[in-house]
Q: What sequence folds into this?
């Protein structure tokens, strides 16, 4: 027997608000490639199977994008700090 994952309406709302803020429904619809009206239907009935996978996948993609952006920012800050330390050591050694 296959386990079919489901998301309830409150879970969908929680995910939407966490990802896109208070006006989340249109943004989520665009992100998962469904008409805006589908999100309204999901909020009445919940989702199973492919729709659940699309929404959970959206959460995963968003999390990865944010981690990559944070990592790029960290690298930029690390590079900047390294340059400042070199500059400081040049002037501090006089």
A:
């Amino acid at each position: 027997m296959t386990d079919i994952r489901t998301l309830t309406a409150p879970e969908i709302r929680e995910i939407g608000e966490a990802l896109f803020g208070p006006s989340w429904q249109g943004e989520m619809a665009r992100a998962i490639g469904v008409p805006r009206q589908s999100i309204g239907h999901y909020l009445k009935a919940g989702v199973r199977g492919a729709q659940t996978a699309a929404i959970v996948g959206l959460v995963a993609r968003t999390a990865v994008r944010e981690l990559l952006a944070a990592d790029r920012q960290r690298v930029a800050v690390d590079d900047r700090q390294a340059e400042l330390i070199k500059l400081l050591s040049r002037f501090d050694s006089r």
About this structure: Strands lie at 6-7, 47-48. The chain is about 80% helix and 5% strand. The radius of gyration is 22 Å. The CA atoms of residues 26 and 66 lie 21 Å apart.
